Model the fold of this input.
Amino acid sequence: MNFKINKTVPFVVKWGLTVVISAVILIPLYWIFISSIKPSNELFTAPIKYIPTNITFENYKKLFFELKLGEKALNTLFITTAALIISTIICLVGAYAFSKYKSRGLKIAYGAIVSSALIPGIVTARPLYDFMNKFNLVDTFLGLIILYTSALIPFTILILNNFLNEIPTSIYEAAEVDGCRAIQKMFYVTLPLMKPAIATISIINFITCLNDLFTPLFFARKIEVLSVGITTIPKETTYSMPWDLISTMGWIILIPIILFVLLFEKQIMDGIMAGGVKE
Done:
């Protein structure tokens, strides 16, 4: 009897917590979705209709054709893709140097780069704005790409460095016996082994760029991306908010993130564990 109780209690607790946490996460997402396909006059009806009866896609049409959502999506894709490619190349070379060459200076540099991720963006916003403005990089694609890239570097270096530390030294020694130089080892030995790590960090960084609201909001005025699209939705009156359009914009921003997490969950978890656990 005690044995059955000992097995049942953990099972009930585990699944009870799973159901509660899932409800806390999924119910708001479902509410945002149904609010995006409801007419505005049905959003605050009583009793609440959890299954919409009058489904409409007018909100999506309005965002795409009146608020130029397609342009915002293209801007987001261009800036994010450029930042991902540049940051991955820089961090791959940097992580290779930090992993394979040891010195006090490299340790200090590595610690400074990784610890810079702990500094909130709001702290450096004003001096960084003045610096970018001096070089006419404010409200430019190049300026946003530089800012996004610099924000991705600390975490990318951390993950790639820990992946590289897990590669056995014997593989590099075998390559040296075959006559490989340092650059050849990086291209012909390291890169093929780093494909899972690169895929993982690309997925995580894509989600990070898509969620970034502060950078485009503070450093751009004319260039708009998806994350700041919600700030461009016009108010009906001073004291009212178009919650139908806000829900639609929120759902559009969430769709690629949800799809990426569902499709690449294993790679994301492997990357986080490899970056956070050191043998």
Residues 62-276 form a domain with the MetI-like fold fold (CATH 1.10.3720.10). The chain has two domains: 1-56, 62-276.
